[in-house]
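Thread: Newbie trying to understand structure tokens

Hi all, I'm a second-year student working on a class project, and my supervisor (Dr. K.) asked me to get a predicted structure for one chain before our next meeting. I've only ever worked with sequences, so writing a 3D structure as a token string is new to me. If someone could post the tokens and maybe explain what I'm looking at, I'd be very grateful. Here's the chain:
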Amino acid sequence: MDLRVRAALGGLAMLCAAHAIAQGANVAAIQASEARKADARTLAALEAFRHALIARFGADPTLTMLRWSESEGSALVQTSGGATEYVIRQGDAWVSTANRKLVPWAPPAVATANAFRLSSVKSAPIRAWLDAWRKAPGQATDFITDYEAGYEPSAARLVVRARVGSMTTFGLAQHAFDPSTGSSVTIAAAPRQVPKAIATAQRRTDDLRRDASAALAALRKVEPSARLGSMRISQREIAFTLADRRTWTFDPSFRLTAGRPYDGSFLCAEGWLEDEVDWTKLAALPRNGVLAANLDDGDEAHARFTVDRSRDCGPLTIEVTYDNYRIPQPWARFDARGRYLTSR
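---
Reply by user tm_fold:
Sure, no problem. This is what the structure looks like when written as tokens:
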């Protein structure tokens, strides 16, 4: 090869590499900027929720739990009669708490004895924690999905927990800090309780379609009150998307793993809860779908399930799809109680 051509190609390769590095840096800078904007919106949401709580309950109400995100705020508020009222606010409106719950980290009596004032949770210390967090290597692009404040018995103090998703490792974890200073707080890990459905099944399943209950039990250990957006059940994987777009995957080793937030549009933000579904009917649906769609008997073994609501938040349905066909694959749809609706 001519030396000039070789030199030109080498120069071109260097330019391409430099361009790729620059593009990567640009993407990271954009992600970091968007993360900061999200921080500002979430702090603004906290202040809006603060004003709404004061307007409803009077100056500086007493709480046993507080949770907020960019789109929603919720709290357990102690009323004058000594009772606790659970409230949720989305945007400018109070919304129903039906099928929702917010549970203190401490036993009820302990949480009540250590209730805190709303003024204990201020934006400035949270901003200080965010500034320190984002200065650490690899954390500038992290996204904070929500915050919770409450009495933490293992630390014997009021703490704020931030749920952090990493764009570097794609992991999801909670990090605690002092709401008065923004300083990190180390919480001793409690012994992990293994759900009975998992403890009694020390095996690797060959078909997760039989293990939906174990997957739900595992999810509720880490997400006790989150509403579901969708649940996709196949032979080798059960994938959860929560109504707030966080995701979890349950694999054949009965391990639950956090994933990247769902960024698509096919999701009902109102969500649903598992007790709305008659899970005892699930096993019969592949056969019922074969009959309804006039398929072959052998297709039954290739069924997978999608349990969700449409993005316009229609009724909860169970869709059975048969994966041994090329797209468009045949499917049959049932309501949450297992009653046949339609098929293709």
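A couple of things are worth pointing out once you decode it. The first strand starts at residue 62 and ends at 68. Residues 1-24, 190-194, 196-201 have pLDDT under 50 and may be disordered. Feel free to ask follow-ups in this thread.
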